[in-house]
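stage 2 :: seqdesign
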C-alpha cells in the first residue's frame, strides 16, 4: 500500500459516508441517538481536510493522521473506535507492500477496536462487519488470492456480517440500553464498517 493508496481509501470512505449519511442516521435513530451519519460525516470530512492541508509521505502517516482527527472530532462511540482502527492499522502497514500486509494491518486494526470496545462477535457492533472481513482477507492470503479477489471477498464478508446484525440483540453501546427491542434493526456501526471495506476495494483494487 502506498501513501497515495491510503489517501484514496480515506477519501473514498468519506465519499461513501456522504452518500449514505441519511441511512446511517436513520439506522441509529431506530436503536440509538440518531447521530451516527453526522458523526461519521463530520469526522471523515475533517480527515479529508487534514490530508488536503499537506500530503503525508507514507500510508502509516495517512492513517495515523486520520485516526487522530477521528478521535478528536467525533464525540460518539464510533470516533474513538474507527480512530483506534486507523491507529493500529497505521502501526502495522508498510509502504509498497502487498495484500498480505494490508490483511495483517486490517487485523491489527480490528484487534484495536476489540481491545478498546470489548465487543465480541455477535454483540451487534462494527466488529460484526470488520471481523468477517479480516477473516476473509486472511483466508484469501493463505490461499494465494490476488488483491482484487481478497478485497472482493472482504466486501462480501463485511456486508453479510452487517446484514446478520439485524436479528441480534445489542450487547454494547447505546443500542444495548434497548435490550430485546434492539432486535430487528441493522446496526449502524456495522453498516459504516462495511462502507470502510467497500471503499478499500474501490481504492485498492
Ligand atoms: P454513539 O452511540 O455514541 O452515539 P455512534 O452513533 O456514532 O455513537 O456509533 C454507534 C455505533 O458504534 C454502533 O452502531 C456500534 O456499531 C458501534 N459501537 C458502539 N459501542 C461499541 C463497542 N463497545 N465496540 C464496538 N463497536 C461499538
Ligand atoms: Mg449514535
Ligand atoms: Mg451519540
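stage 2 :: out
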Amino acid at each position: 500500500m502506498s501513501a497515495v493508496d491510503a489517501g484514496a481509501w480515506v477519501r473514498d470512505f468519506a465519499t461513501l459516508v456522504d452518500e449514505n449519511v441519511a441511512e446511517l442516521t436513520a439506522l441509529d435513530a431506530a436503536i440509538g441517538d440518531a447521530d451516527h451519519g453526522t458523526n461519521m460525516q463530520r469526522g471523515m470530512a475533517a480527515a479529508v481536510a487534514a490530508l488536503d492541508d499537506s500530503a503525508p509521505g507514507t500510508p502509516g502517516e495517512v492513517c495515523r493522521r486520520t485516526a487522530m482527527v477521528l478521535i478528536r472530532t467525533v464525540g460518539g462511540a464510533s470516533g474513538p473506535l474507527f480512530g483506534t482502527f486507523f491507529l493500529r492499522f497505521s502501526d502495522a502497514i508498510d509502504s509498497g507492500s502487498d495484500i498480505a500486509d494490508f490483511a495483517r494491518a486490517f487485523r491489527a486494526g480490528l484487534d484495536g477496536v476489540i481491545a478498546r470496545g470489548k465487543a465480541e462477535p455477535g454483540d451487534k457492533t462494527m466488529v460484526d462487519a470488520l471481523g468477517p472481513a479480516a477473516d476473509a482477507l486472511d483466508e484469501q492470503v493463505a490461499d494465494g488470492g490476488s488483491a482484487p479477489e481478497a478485497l472482493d471477498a472482504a466486501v462480501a464478508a463485511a456486508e453479510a456480517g452487517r446484514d446478520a446484525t439485524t436479528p441480534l440483540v445489542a450487547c454494547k453501546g447505546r443500542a444495548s440500553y434497548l435490550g430485546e427491542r434492539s432486535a430487528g434493526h441493522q446496526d449502524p456501526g456495522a453498516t459504516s464498517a462495511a462502507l470502510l471495506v467497500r471503499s478499500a476495494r474501490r481504492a485498492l483494487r
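stage 3 :: structure notes
- Residues 123 and 172 are 6 Å apart (CA to CA).
- The pocket of adenosine-5'-diphosphate (ligand 1) is lined by residues 28, 32-33, 35-36, 39, 76-78, 81, 113, 117-119, 125-127, 172-174, 187-190 (CB under 6 Å).
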